Structure formats: C-alpha cells, structure tokens
Structure prediction request, 922 residues.
Amino acid sequence: MIRRPALLFLFLLPVAALAKDSCLECHTAMESAPALKFPKDVHPRRGFSCADCHGGDRNADDPEAAMSKAKGFRGKIARTAVPQLCAHCHSDANLMHKYMPQQRVDQYELYQTSVHGKRLAAGDGSVANCVDCHSVHDIREVKDPQSPVHPLRLPETCARCHADAGHMAKYKIPTNQFEEYRKSVHWAALAQRGDLSAPSCASCHGNHGATPPQVSSVAAVCGNCHALIEELYSKSPHQPAFAAMGAAGCVTCHGSHGVLMPSPAMLVGDKSVCVQCHDAGSAGGKAAVEMAASINGLSAALKNSDQVLRRAASSGMEVSEAMLRQQEAQATLVKARVAVHAFRVAAVGQLAQAGLAAAAETRRAGEDALKERDYRRMGLAVALLAILATIAGLWLALRAIERNPQAPAEAGRR
Amino acid sequence: MEGIKTNTGGLGGWLEERLGLSAMREFLAHKTVPVHSATMWYYFGGITLFLFVIQVLTGILLLLYYRPTATEAYESVQFIMTRVQFGWLVRSIHSWSANLMIFTAFVHMFSVVFLRSYRRPREVTWLSGMALLGLALGFGFSGYLLPWNTISYFATKVGTDMAASLPGIGPALARFLRGGEDVGGATLTRFFGFHVAVLPGLATVLLLVHLALVQKHGISSPPWVERKFRAQGGKTPQMPFFPNFFLREMMAWYAALGVLGSLAAIFPWELGEKADPFVSAPAGIRPEWYFLAPFYTLKLIPSRVLFLEGELLGLLGFGLLAVFWILLPFWATNRQGMERTRLVTGAGVALLAYLATFSLLGYFK
Amino acid sequence: MITERRNLIRTLLGGGFTASLVAFLYPVIRFMNPPQVSEASVNEVPGGKVQDLKPNSGKIVKFGSRPVLLVRLNQTEWRAFSAVCTHLNCTVQYQEQRRQIWCACHNGFYDLNGNVVSGPPPKALEEYLARVRGDEVVISRRA
Prediction:
C-alpha cells in the first residue's frame, strides 16, 4: 500500500521522455520525413510533440481520434499562419520562462515591424516566416552550429531567397548582396577566422525585425563596432555634407555588403573614391592627396625600418626590443589610417609624424645592430689574423726544428 | 735530447726542491708519438680536451650572470646576449664548443676503434674514455635545458619521458632527474647542479685517470704499422712529443680556436622563446644532433612489438648496444689471444654508419 | 739567413701569441665587468610613483615584452591587466566616465575585473598584481 506512491513517483520522473506521443510513433513507423527529423528538434526534449503545433490528441492511438478536428487538429499550417502559431508560445513570457528564464519573448512583435512581417500580414506568403530561417521539425538552438541561423550559417540562409533572382523579381530589389558580402572583410573574419563577433546580415539589418537601416542611421549602425571612427566622422565636415545630400555615411565610400580592406588607394589613384565628388584642384581633392602622402610616407618608413631590423635579426643580432617598438610604431599607422575619417589633414599628419619618429628610432636601432655586427666581424678578422700568425709561426718553428735535427730544440720555441 | 739539466740555483732551484718538477720534465722529454699515415687521428683526443677546457672557462664566465630558476633563467641568458659586454661571444662559444667537443669525442672514439688502441694493456683507458663520453652526453643533455627556452624544455620532457619508460627503475629515475613529477623549476635547478658541480667533478677525476694512463702506456701504434716495421727489422718511427708533436698540436688547437671564434661571430647561438609549459609542443620538436640517431630509431619502431612496448624495446636495445660497445676490448680478442680484427672493424663501421645515417634522417624528417 | 729566419719565427710566434692572447683576454675582461643595467627585470616591473597617477585613471606600462594597463581606481586601490585586447590584439585603454576598460578598435568593453562587458572580445583580460611599495607602484605576475 505504501509502495504505490513510490511507484507513481518512478513514473513521473522521466515524464518528458516517456510520455505518450502517438503522432510521433505512427509517423515514425511510416518513415515520414518530419517525424524522422523530429528527435533532433529542441521541442520534444522539453516535452512538446506534434500535437502542440498541429493540434490533435497525442494520447490516442486511433488515427481518426488522434487527428480529429474536434481535438483541434489543423493539418499542414498555412505559410501566413506560421508566425502567429509560433508566437502562441514564444510570446508568452510566463510559459517561456518556465523553460528558459532569460529567453526573449518579443520576436513576433519585432517581426511585425519588419518588411517580412508587414508583407506577410498583407497576405504575401512568399516572404520569410519563422520556419524559413529556423527550419521546421528539426529546430535547433541558435548556438548549435547546425542551426541555419547560427552566425556562421546565417548569410547562406538569408541568401536562399535574397540571392535568388527569380524569387526576388517581384520585389524589385537587388540580389547581389550575398555575393558582395562574401568578398568582404567581415565574411573573411567570420568564415575564415571563425570570429563569431564579426557582423553578418542580422548584425546590421536586425534578425526578427529585419529592416534595412535608413540612410541617416547607417553610420550609427556601423558605429556599434567602429565607434571611434563614427565619432570622428560625425565631427567631420563630411557628416553634414552627406546628410544634406541624402547620402549614407560609411557605405557611400566603403560599400554596404562588399566592404573590402581599406587602403590609401581609396584616397588617390585610379581606385580613388574621393575623386567621385572632389576635383583634383579642390580643397577636398588636395586634402585627400596630402592625407594619402602622410600615410604612404609612414608606411614606407616602417617597411624600411622593418627591413633593416630583419637583416640585423637574420645575421644573429638580438633586436627583440627594437622589434617591440616597431610593433608600437605599426599601431600609429593604424591610428593614422583611422584618423582619415576626421577628414582633416592635420589629424592624419600629427599621427603620421609620431609614427615617423618611432620608425626612425627603430631604423636607428637596426642600423646600430648592423654596425655592431660589422664590429664583431672586424674583431673576428683581427683575432683570426693573430691566430693565423701564431699558426704560421708554429709551423715555421716546426719546419726549422725538423730540418736540422741536431739543432737545439730552443730554436723558435717560446 | 740529452739529459735535462736540473736547476740548482735561484728560483728554479727553490721550486725544484719543493715540487720536484724535473722528474716530470724528464718524463715529458722522452715522450714520443708514432709517425705513420694515420698519425693525424692522434690530435682528436687533445682537441677534445682543449674544447673541454674552453667549456670550463666560458662556463665559469657565464656563471657570473646566469640564474638557474624557471622565472629568471631565460631572462638572464637574454641579459648575457644583449647587455653584457661580449656576452654574445662567451655564450655562443660555449654552445658551439659543446657541440664540437661531442663531435671530436666521437671522432676520437672511432679512431681508437679503427686504429685498435683499445688493445691490452689499454682496456682501462678505453673504459675511462667511454665513461667520459657518457659524461659529455650528460653535460650536453643537462646544459641544453639551462636557457629554458621552448626547444630545451620540450627536449628535456621527451628525454625524461624516455627514461620513465624503462622497466622497474623508470618512474623513479625520471622523478630523480626531474626533481618532481613534471619538468619544471625543480628540474632546472637540479640539472644546473649536475651541470656545474656533479658532472665536472666526475669528469675531472676520470680525465686525470684517462690522461695518466695514456702517459703510462704511451701512444699506441696500429698493429699493421707495427707489423710492417717489425718485418723490416726495426721499430715504428717516433717523433718526440716535445717539441715536434706539441707544436703540431698547438697549431691544431689554435685552428680549433679560430673555427670556434668564427662560428660564434658569424652564427651566434639563438635565444629562442621562453619556455611555457602550458603551450603544446611545437611540431617537429627534436633533440640536439647527438641524440638524433636514437630519437629517430625510436620513432620508427612500431608502438607494440609482440608483448613489449615499442619504446621500451628500443631503449633496451640501446642499453644492450651500449654495454656491448663498452666491453669492446674484452670481446675484441678471442680466447687464444688472436685479434678479431674483422669483427671489430665491421662493428665499428656498422655503428658509424648507423649513427651517421639515422642522425641525418632524424634531422631531415 | 738563419738568423733572419729565426727572427721571423720569433716575431710571428711571439707577436701572434701575444695578439691572440689579447684577443682572448680583452673580451673576457670586459665580460666580467658588470654592465650599467645590472639586472634583468623579470617578474616585477615598476609602475611609477604613486602620485604620478590620479585616482580613476590608467596608463600603459611595459612588462617584459608586453603592454600592461595600470589602473588606479581610487586613493588606495590599484589594478593591472594585460593591455592586449583578446579580440584582435589592439592595445586597450581606461575610460574614466564609464569606469571600464575600452578597446578603440571594435568598441569592446571590459569591467574592472577584466571580464568582457560588451563587444567582440571573446575572453577576459589577464590580471596582474599591482601593489604599492613605499611611494612606488609595483606590477607583478599573479602567482
């Protein structure tokens, strides 16, 4: 008698895993694709089953009873009905916090502000809904590398539609973003270096509330990571000028998706972006030339001192301290390039001067090391001369002794 | 040379009465060296001794600045290389001379084998020489750790791991060598003690024995040279040690000095990076060249051979080979007193070929 | 002739020997003479005088081959961290207004325990020990 509660307890323990799920049982036996994928999904781990989305009765073995309309069975969910269905749980704070206390519950709210959400509400079924990005029946956590919305896979997921010319034809927006993005430094950081903090589509466009940033807010979006540069830009003459023209900050010069590694070639030369607005003779044109000259000058000086240091190091001289100083000098080059965004020659010039001083220091250290090396070799030559002279003397003494065996052994011996 | 005059007057006489050096001068005056086509090999023992003296002198100089703790060793060597006047020279000479000394020691050993200088009554000279070779390798192994850079740290780790795999005594031996369970600061202090006190003490004693025996028995001539001259009814031609061989030896020593100085000035020994036990071993880690042959052999042995672990089999093999080689004078002659010349030559050539080939393979692979 | 020969030998031997002796002894004697900076600094680096750094400010100090950020929180508390950002190795700096450590390159922030607060850095800054000795601050590695 006392044992029954204990037995019940045993049954209650593995509730989630062992609770009856007739939907999954039958459909797995039928080898239908959704059922076969479902064990990988996060939902069954927390005790949810097919019926929680599709309706019906998971405890009934009889198909008619299990899939009866009376029990709320809906069958296949219409594309336009998907977000509301997911939101039924995922926007319910009390429910979600039973499973994950810190889980956000505003995804549907954000989705409704997005272009996708607005068009879906207007009845367009071909825009993205929850399952297009998160997949369905095998939904994984975002941090799972196999999830389609894991940072490393997100761009491909967006590209499924946004790079498909046929699909996007009716919306009349370009489809080259993914192709461009893959040339960018951000993609390189993400895909090649595995830096998960590198921006992808959602970082700038938002994920659930995906909307392209307005022209006036592009610089602020980039400034989330490139804060110092945005600060410089916002105090520079370009900011009011671009605002007046209705041009977006940052992307006007750097591009939006295909952001490449910047270089002084953007200032002058045939790849220059400045000439697109500024004539060569104008104040802006001249400033561009001067800034490029400062940066290129510093870059050349650093390369030069680097070469000297390397030559010294490869001849065995100890130049580790100078190499450290060289690293600091390289940092000033980075700072000078950043200072371009103030669009004032003096800002770049000052930093370039500091860098040039450091480069001169390190070059001198390298040259001193080379001089020391030459001094050592000179010393070696002198020592070798002394040694050779002694060997010659010894040899001559030996010859003298052995030529005259009767001669006293003192001949030539010290 | 006629009899050496014994000093009776002045300073010479005063020293003579107290130190009795004339006996030694008398002895040295009569010391001779055989002259034949292979005489040049006689220089290598002396060069090894010369390089050892250089090691002691440069080692003492380095002791003025080196600090044997894990936190300071690398920095003190860096200090010597960058701040101390001619520190780069003293340190580079010490490192180069170490390598050259081990090389000349091996040359000396092989010349003794092929010129058959190990024969009776020079067996103890051979044994003391083998002990000295072992000490030289011990000097090399212990000294290699002292700069405390990445290469030396991992080379010591691999070396002591091999010791640990010996049956029975292995773990205890490794613990003794390392001063603990892992290679660390305790190992460094211990190796330093071995390198500057224990090994030099043992080496000094053995050197004195070795040199005394060489003086006692004189320098041996190869049997074929002796046979040739006996057939002609005479003895092997000799040259006086003083001044003839001595002058030649001085030329050789000076040449060695020139080579050392050039190597030190043109190829200064590198500093490397400070050892970090938490970083994984860099790819392609390997010991210094004189340990390459056994190292590469161990790499080739499969991890299990019958019931034995491969590495253990390799180490036991080396042990057996070493014992066999040390006892060379005793199996080089058969019961009837006949020289097993072909066996010895064969063994010598085989060992030389093995060491040379596997060292090269170990270096390039 | 023989005398000339003998003199040549004497000169070569004597001169060569003396010269080689000098070439040998000169470096040895200079080696034994201790250099100006008599020790290699290893585990401890001076961080400057106490009064040189105001409360709620920071400065970069070289520790061996790496930069270290020394922060004075208030009159009595000091902290020191590796100044190498764990994201892409830029040098971090102290931000007084937020009382946090900031990396200018991609806007990463660390708190005063070295932990990442926001931005791309993947892990915390290594902490060093900063102690006041007399009127000097001394930075050393944590044991």
The first helix of chain A runs from residue 3 to 12. Residues 283-371 of chain A form one domain.
